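Hey team,

Filing this mostly as a record. A colleague (T.K.) asked me to run one chain through the structure pipeline before their review meeting, and I want the input and output archived in the tracker in case anyone asks later how it was produced. No errors, nothing strange. Just documentation.

Input sequence:
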Amino acid sequence: MSKKKNITRDLKLAYPNFLIVGMGRSGSLWVSAMLNAHPDIASFPSLPFYTTSGEKRVGEVHFFNTLASLEPDTEGKFTSPTSNYLTMHGKVFADIVPYQEKVSKEKLYTLLVKRYSEHCNNQRGKKKIVGEQTAEYVFHLNFIDSFYPSIKKICIIRDPKDKIVSWHFRAISTGKKKEKRLTEKFVLAYLQERVIKEYKALLDYNGSVYCMTYEKLREDTPTHIKGAVKYLDMTVSDKIITRMVEEGSFKSMTARDAKTAGRDAGEEESTAQIRKGVVGDWRNYMTEKTAKKVDDAVRELRTKVFRKYSVDGDI
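Output structure:
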């Protein structure tokens, strides 16, 4: 533990300043986009980084869940192999991967953390602080603290039924799922494999996380994104908040993304990566019977998480 802490303590660039740690399919990309529109905050990725030529830029770097794959008893538990860095994530870490077989784990961590800090600093540009968003980080919160003790963390919690619907369409858009009908089997499988484990990860964490609900954020976006900015100790004004909300809107994000810019700004395709995220959308795809099974399975966990992190929202 102490060796990991020394890695970041001894580095000149101890970035990032904050992390958006999840949950998956709960609006973390939206929050990142809004924070990135603040004049003093850089947050990446702030939208799916596709260029006009179709090339995908770095986007999420999956840093901590990749490092976690090197730890005992974590392989496969929401981790990514270091080999992904050879071809993915903009190859930011590609040249470091071969060292895995040549140096100690501590030395490898030092090389990777230094590169990560440099990458975050590049993303920061001239802004005061920088943060990164990867939804899988929610499963590695204590591990993250072993590198960046007490780093600020933001988490968005969404109605699990809407989360599952969003993942259903995401799986279709990436070719992981062929059947367009949302079946109860799919719903309950994702519930057990991902959703419940996210809540348990938050309950198992020893530190603090700034949590907000997706529903409250939709209901009153200016107020709740202002709360996140205050949490990051950055300047807040009505003018800044208005700009942040506009830049993070579905219309603005689809207009900026080369893969969706071909259609009318603000027009939604059901299988697109960027979706409007309508609250209660599950009613269009899920039976009441299945919905009750989801609610019953997570009610106690949600109650405990909401109480632990003082979450403002309906359980």
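Quick notes for T.K.: The radius of gyration is 19 Å. The domain at 2-158+208-267 is CATH 3.40.50 (Rossmann fold).
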